[in-house]
Sequence to fold (241 residues):
Amino acid sequence: MKRPLIVIIAWLLAILLIAAMVVSMDFSFPEALLISVTFLPGALAARFFFSKISFENRREGIINACFVFLAILVVETALVLAADLYILWLREHTHGLFNIVDGKQFPNTLFNPIFISLILTLLLVGDWALARLLEKRFPAAKEPVRFISERKPVSLLPEEILFIESNDKEVTVFATGGRRFRNRTGIAQWESLLGPDFVRIHRSYLVQRSAISQIGADSLIAAGTSLPISRKYRESVQSLR
Fold:
């Protein structure tokens, strides 16, 4: 329970910090709080979608990241505009409840794409740094990896997965007991999902570290199977010796 509680508190503090910054632009605290909340959907969407982008093909990954960024920027601008209209309506119907002079407009800074991008970036960097810190302080218990293979749900513990082989748009998951499962999730996403207990040895292979029994110059043995080591990953694999 500690980790989720800390994450929730951190996001609440982030909202309050943004609100404090907006208050400095001569807004009341309720208005500033409403504005700061509008940044949460964009930050959470960026956190989700950027984690799904594969940079195995660098050019394609960069293009996809740019499209995601632009889409989120457009949504965020629309949310800030919606907050603007809502606050103006409240000013007209609450008779001074917000203690702001009726008819006052938002400063142009709030609609500046650079300002919105900066806020989102700070939220994402803070979330990433907090996740790294919590991972060291409160190591999470390993949970089963769930995926779909041939239209059937599969659940495996990470230690049951020996290595993963990528073949075009499909991967084969090799598990203990001679089990094999086919899945359409990209190998780069599998690498992110499985974490540091697995090592990339080739554009087509991701291997569990503990399954490696022998490492050669251009290949290694994992779970009794010889797998190639590409030049790109040779140095990092050789350091496992």
Observations:
- Residues 173 and 181 are 5 Å apart (CA to CA).
- Helices lie at 2-23, 29-37, 39-52, 58-93, 113-137, 187-194, 231-238.
- The chain is about 50% helix and 20% strand.
